[in-house]
Structures are given as C-alpha cells and as structure tokens.
Amino acid sequence: KAGVTQTPRYLIKTRGQQVTLSCSPISGHRSVSWYQQTPGQGLQFLFEYFSETQRNKGNFPGRFSGRQFSNSRSEMNVSTLELGDSALYLCASSRQGATSYEQYFGPGTRLTVT
Amino acid sequence: QKEVEQNSGPLSVPEGAIASLNCTYSDRGSQSFFWYRQYSGKSPELIMFIYSNGDKEDGRFTAQLNKASQYVSLLIRDSQPSDSATYLCAVKTSYDKVIFGPGTSLSVIP
Questions:
Q1: Neighbour tally for A42: CB within 10 Å
Q2: pLDDT, tens only, A1-44
Q3: Alpha-carbon distance A73 to B33, whole Å?
C-alpha cells in the first residue's frame, strides 16, 4: 500500500508571497492532519480535516489555511509568508475508525522563506 | 505546564542495553498514546501505540501506560546503533487533538 505523499518536497519563497502544499493520504484514510516542525518549537499541530471538513485547529494565525477534497487529498495554504514560516511541513493521515487513531506521516515539504 | 513533556536528552546507552524513554501528559482524559521515531532529516515513523493501561510489546519495543499517573514510557531492549534517533511521544487528548512532546534524543554507543 502506498504511503502518504507530499508535494513539493522543497520550496523556496520570498517574504510576502503565498504557497500551497499538497498531501495525498494513504488509500482508505479519511483524516489528514498538518503539522509544522521547527528546531525550536518541535511538532506543532496546524489543523485536521476529515471528510472535507476542518475538525480541529491549532494556534496558528489565519494566514494558515487548508482544505480537503472528496478524494481525501488535502492542501495547505500560507499567505503573506514571513521568515518565521520557514519549517518542515508534515501531513499525516489516519483511518480514524472507532478505535483507530494512528497517524502516518508523509516525507514533508521543506519550506524556506527568504 | 506543557501538555506533553519528555526529557530532551540526549540519552546515551551502550549497544545491547535497555533504553528507557519517558513521557508525561497533562490531560487526564487522554485515551490514545503513540511513540514515533524520527531520524535526522526524515519524517516521524510510528513505532508503537497503546490505548489501555499496562504493557504492550512489539519485538524489541515495549510501551507502558499508567493513566492514573499520566505517564507513558517506551522501552527498547537490546538497543542497536540503528535505534539512534529522536523519539516523539504523542497523545490524543480528550478534545481530539494529537499533541506531540518535544522528543528525546537517543544515542546508542557501539
């Protein structure tokens, strides 16, 4: 079974620009969560989508947004990029059954803002 | 108080020894607990999950959960140099968010 895929793997943007990252979950998984990982802050939860609805949200500004499509693929958008947005962005998918909450991570998108 | 806490390490153990990694959490209603391994430059990899009090064993790994003490641990038996990585504890809270600890860096010395 194919794992979680993320595109692009690496991205360099300029401050003020916007960026869209994509995540395709494991087949059959309906939940997609997004995380930001930096050396100083660790893994920080951005948001979770389930069946095209945002089910949970972390403490990030409104510049960070996402959506999920009917095939469970998800996109994350960051507008008006700041230098501090440079990070590894990870998505994780989960089957989300009654007792199944295990998340599986994609390889991540390394975003550098200059 | 942080929601999920771990000793940052680094934790150094000799090859063949038992490595013990600890995690505490603040939300008493949490029900699901996970251990991830992350090699440098790679994404986290799920290695264990535990939902019930007690021990759960999978190969050289044992997860231990004590909900009364709000404590979860990971034991790695017969540690190998390939186990050298950062280990992340994650907790699914009663408000449905998965919160990660800061991670513990483990170094297994040959």
A1: 18
A2: 689 999 999 999 999 999 999 999 999 999 999 999 998 888 99
A3: 26
* Residue among B93, B98, B99, B105 with most chain A CBs within 10 A, to mutate: B98
CA–CA distances in Å: residue A103 to residues A78, B10, B46: 23, 26, 7
Please state the three-class secondary structure of A49-64 as a single string.
EECCEEEEECCCCCCE
pLDDT tens digit sequence for A35-49: 999 988 889 999 999
Q: Give the CA count within 13 Å in the CB-facing half-sphere of A54.
A: 13
What does chain A look like in DSSP terms, one character per residue?
----EEE-SEEEE-TT--EEEEEEPPTT--EEEEEEEETTTEEEEEEEEETTEEEEE-S--TTEEEEE-TTS-EEEEE-S--GGG-EEEEEEEE---SS----EE---EEEEE-
Chain B neighbors of A34, CB-CB under 8 A:
none
3-class SS of residue B82 = helix
Q: Using CA coordinates, name the residue in chain B closest to A108.
A: B43
